[in-house]
Design a protein that fits this description.
Low-confidence stretches: none
Distance between the termini: 52 Å
Helix content: over 70%
Largest sheet: none
Number of strands: 0
CATH class: Mainly Alpha
Mean pLDDT: 86
Structural class: mainly alpha
Radius of gyration: 20 Å
Number of helices: 8
Strand content: under 5%
CATH topology: MetI-like fold
Oligomer: single chain
Order of helices and strands: HHHHHHHH
């Protein structure tokens, strides 16, 4: 494998990281909306949020990519491939992050909500200043764990012709006829990204467990 071949893989890695960033950063605000909707007193709002989570957790990410990638042109929306794929990952991330944060909000001791009520704090103030900061800390390990899964999940974008890291490896393997070498390098690149994130998540989990004792 030459330097040019390795740079070709790095270009695919660039798109892998970009897709991950788009999906994760896009999923954060929408995921927060989903999490808060799951806590709503309105049964219709809760039902919509529950259905959103069920839809994206109950169907394969590959199918979601296909539906959004090929469905947008059918309804007259012509967008670049990376936009369609980014939308798919954003929707997917919002469902998972929303469920993670919903669980974290429910994990905050009830006494916190009761104290806010006793102090006469409004719902918005109590949620943003008291409940969510605590829920954020609780959810950090699971959120980082999902980020690792999202990095690896971007490999499915190759199915719709997107040239990210896995697709770059496949193309290079077909050219060089050295699949073991090429995908070995691809695996190392994924490992370099995902393993430090996993270690960071485990470290946070241990710190949170120790602080809660």
């Amino acid at each position: 494998m030459t330097l040019t071949d390795f740079l070709f893989l790095l270009n695919g890695l660039k798109w892998t990281l970009l897709l991950t960033a788009i999906g994760f950063m896009g999923g954060i605000p929408f995921g927060l909306v989903v999490a808060l909707a799951r806590q709503s007193r309105n049964s219709i709002v809760r039902g919509i949020a529950r259905s959103w989570i069920g839809l994206f957790q109950g169907t394969p990410l590959l199918m979601q990519l296909f539906v959004i990638y090929f469905g947008l042109p059918i309804v007259g929306l012509e967008v670049p491939a990376w936009v369609a794929v980014g939308l798919a990952f954003t929707a997917h991330a919002s469902a998972y992050l929303g469920d993670i944060w919903r669980g974290a909000i429910e994990a905050v001791p009830n006494g916190q909500s009761e104290a806010c009520h006793a102090l006469g704090l409004k719902y918005r103030t109590a949620m943003w200043d008291v409940i969510l900061p605590q829920a954020f800390k609780i959810s950090l390990p699971a959120t980082i764990g999902f980020l690792v899964q999202l990095v690896k999940g971007t490999s499915l974008a190759a199915i719709v012709g997107f040239v990210e890291l896995s697709r770059s490896g496949q193309m290079l393997s077909n050219l060089l006829y050295k699949p073991l070498l090429v995908f070995g390098v691809v695996g190392v690149l994924y490992f370099i990204i995902c393993w430090p994130l996993s270690l960071f998540g485990k470290r946070l989990e241990r710190q949170l467990a120790a602080s809660s004792r």
